[in-house]
Amino acid sequence: MSMLFELRRIPEDQANSLRSDPSDIFFFLHGSEPYEPPKGLIQKFFGSKKEKPQKKWEPPKTGSVLNLDSNWHVLHYFLSRSAWEGSIPEGALMAGVELGSVDVGYGPAKMLMPGEIESFLNFLDSLSEKDFGAGITGAKLVENEIYGGYAEWGKESTSSLWGYVEELKRFLSEAREAEEFVVMYVY
Predict the structure, then answer these.
(1) CATH code of the domain in which 12 resides
(2) What is the tally of structural domains in the chain?
(3) Are the beta carbons of 127 and 172 closer than 8 angstroms?
(4) What are residue 65's phi and psi, to 5 degrees?
């Protein structure tokens, strides 16, 4: 099973709602609540009789999601030169504000604010395809245990990865234009 990385653009009101009550993040992203085991005998008789209100899940709007597939960790490494750390703008894929502690796949979701999106976008705009990944080898990817990296990594793989940079720039530009926030998570 692959670890995939998704970014989702959301309007300010949804961002504020998720920041004030991050317990709803799993439902927001996936449309279902995390698994709860059935009630035991004691809970059935003496537990709360209140049913949870049914919520209506709305799928993301067309074009508001960008999936970096299983290339997210290699891309983060190429941008930040770090396996897991990094600050904005270079490490934006691993940075952002954590939305509570609910595990949405592989840890909690994170959110980029409009100013962080602008900073990340400016950083991506400063990169050139010609110099992208200079000095990074397959051996470095393996040595740093970069998910999706492999020893035979070469120019073709780097060229393919550049396509994700272009998609990120397009996606973040649209978020900036609409003054949206971005939720990011690994699942």
Answers:
(1) 3.40.1760.10
(2) 1
(3) no
(4) -125, 140
